[in-house]
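Request: Could I get any protein with tokenized structure?
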Amino acid sequence: MFQYHCLNPIAEVGLEKFGDNYKQTDNMAEADAVLVRSAKMHDMELPERLCVIGRAGAGVNNIPLGKCSEQGIAVFNTPGANANGVKELVLAGLLLASRDIIGGIRWVQSERQNEELEQLAEKQKKQFAGNEIQGKKLGVIGLGAIGILVANAAVALGMEVYGYDPYISIKSAWNLSRQVKHIEDVNDIYRECDYITIHVPLTDETKGMIGEDAIALMKPDAVVLNFARGPLVDQKAMVEALRSGRIRHYVSDFPIPEIVNQRRAIVVPHLGASTRESEDNCAVMAVDEIRDYLENGNIHNSVNYPNCDMGVCQTAMRVTVIHRNIHNMLTQFTAAFGELGINIGRMSNVTRGEYGYAMMDLENTADERAIEKIRRIDGVLKVRVIR
């Protein structure tokens, strides 16, 4: 019986996918798996029993990846599960920034008691006029699941779309509209585009990427949209750009006080993935990943360990080993089982950065003595037995 713990509310359509062999627990110390959305885990004590964390969403900056990796805890996210919800909000942001729709709505509300509102509106509407997005240039920085949907939708709306992503995957490239112009230098996006939207993960390299230098290259009427992560934009530089009128608008999904107080900022309360469909998709995907890992040892969409899939075990038992990516590990595993007369029918060993993951299907059952022999090998972080 596996036990799971939810740090945030998780859509029931996902939790229903846990079978009879799973039980929800309110005590994290008893959990084999944890599901999380936005709860901050950096100061939490991670129990020894914990094997996997499923993030129902894409960003994992609320999860202590280094600590998890050292404790042999696989961390999964759900890339693409909320992509359509974010894409639709980005499109809304484009429209809100092109016309003063918000100002117009506020004006109507302020005059709602005026019996001559309809006639007055015809005189006042010019102060809320703007421009159409058709024919304008949109720069999309980051062509992952969300960036591709945004780029393709913008093409369909008649925009001239420029895409930048030096690490675009083959799958993403196939899904991208041929009308999207591939840009090799991100500075060309800053210089040429009327609207710029960023869709990259938050890393040490991308933090503050939209800063003073990038803003200095932009058109004076450019609009920047950030529905990815707040710190991708240098807040100090953006505040100064908004105050000075260096750019027309900053549209953000992150209600940071310094930004909210700026007249040219359009800020929404982190609504990107806040749709019923996105939450359902993320929950279903996270549960599927957790189940495949706990029941079969397979890894898909891990952010700290390499992907590995050997299907369902067809032999006596399967042993999985999370280990450091150091010399001679695989030889030690095979030697340990060989000394005890245990034959490995099929195996896989993959690495990613500092860590490796080995899966071994044994043709005869290994007892606790054999498993303990593997655990004692220097560099081994966690061993699991799947029967």
User: Anything to note?
Assistant: The two ends are 13 Å apart (CA to CA).
